[in-house]
Amino acid sequence: MKKRIPFVDLERQHAPIREELRKAALRVLEGGRYIGGPEVAGFEKEMAQWLGVDEVCGVSCATMGLFSILKSMGIGPGDEVITTAHTAIATAEAVSLTGARVIFADLAEESCNLDPADVERRITDRTRAVIAVHLYGIPVDMDALLGVTAEHGLRLVEDCAQAQGARYRGRRLGTFGDAAIFSFFPSKNLGGFGDGGAVTARDPALLKKIRMFSNHGREQKFIHEFEGINSRLDAIQAALLRVCLPHLDTWNGRRREVAGRYDRALGEIGEITIPLVPADAEPVYHVYGILVPDRDDMASYLKERGVATGLHYPYSLNVQPAYAAAGYHRGTHPRAEYFCDHELSLPMYPDMTEDESEYVCACIREYFGK
Ligand SMILES: *Cc1c(COP(=O)(O)O)cnc(C)c1O
């Protein structure tokens, strides 16, 4: 029988905490403190505890948070920052906004993440930092990448926008580099109810600078130590995120169960490449992306059977018009291009039932005539 399987289902995820969310929102409306204040401070403390770091700073979104990190590291015109060709454009925009040049590395074979060896090949005497994007919530091969950044004396920033809660060698992502960014865009694993993000940094002095930068370069009212921007987390988002955060590890665990069911069923189909996860990693599957020979054909086949799918992303950044002037084009990053030409994201949400994932797998088996 035909089922309707959405791509994500935030309604279902929020239903059990709806009353708590309503109370948290009202608390802010009635408390009269809309920027900063106890909800933001409370959320920052709770997230720091959850992450296992001393301090976290709420920001208006991950894009501005990443920009604030790079600016606070002193990165600017004349510098180069290496990141992956396969990511949300936000990662690269944050680099370009500083005036530095963004350099794209290609992917590791069959992986959705950058290849540390290709990062190393692209290092020049202008390179200042590397941004590791843990795309889909799957950790980058951090042992190899940390080896490269340490050897060349580069800063390492982790883009954990899709990886909140994931672990590598038992440690949460976001605690490996010099600094890390998280996004609370509504569909992310810890999603807010609008834009939002958080930053952490290993060096407390750097985090202090980031906090000041994202608040007009000030610590005290009226005294601007330097020019910054306005990139703060709203009190109402903080209050709502405080309701969601305690559920995140459970939600991520359920995503892993869904991914496990997909892995077992789809791993048997020769035409499909299931997500490659490095050794000793605990991913959080923001996206469950498979590689198939003709993903557009398969997407429409699934759509006809009520199964929604997504693309993350159909084009790697090196083929985007935005980077043509920088000399990037089709052909410069073959692995990223191959990945983006063949990737199809399957429905993934914490409350997906076994019946639902089995239906998706049955449709896929049928598509391949198995
Ligand atoms: C969503 C996302 C961002 C940007 O996050 P915003 O909070 O929307 O600014 C950056 N990097 C990656 C990998 C993302 O998925």
Overview of this protein structure:
α4 (62-72) crosses α8 (204-213). By secondary structure, this protein is an alpha/beta fold. The chain contains 13 helices and 14 strands. The model has no long low-confidence stretch (mean pLDDT 97). It has helices spanning 10-14, 18-31, 38-51, 62-72, 89-97, 116-121, 142-152, 204-213, 235-244, 248-266, 295-304, 334-342, 354-367; strands spanning 57-59, 80-84, 101-105, 127-133, 155-159, 167-168, 171-172, 179-183, 197-201, 218-220, 223-224, 281-282, 288-291, 343-346. The strands form four sheets. It has a seven-stranded mixed sheet with strand order 1-9-8-5-4-2-3, with helices on both faces. The chain is globular and about 70 Å long. A hairpin with a 2-residue loop joins β10 and β11 (223-224).
Note the beta-strand portion: 5-15%
Structural class, from secondary structure content?
A: alpha/beta
Average pLDDT across residues? Answer: 97
Describe the global form: globular
Total beta strand runs: 14
Bound molecules: pyridoxal-5'-phosphate
Uncertain residue segments:
none
Rg measurement, Å: 21 Å
Q: What is the element string, with H for helices and E for strands?
A: HHHEHEHEHEHEEEEEHEEHHEEHHEH
Which percent range fits the helix content?
A: 25-40%
Ends distance: 18 Å
- Oligomeric status of the shown chains? single chain
Number of helices: 13
Biggest sheet descriptor: 7 strands, mixed
The order of strands across the largest sheet is 1-9-8-5-4-2-3
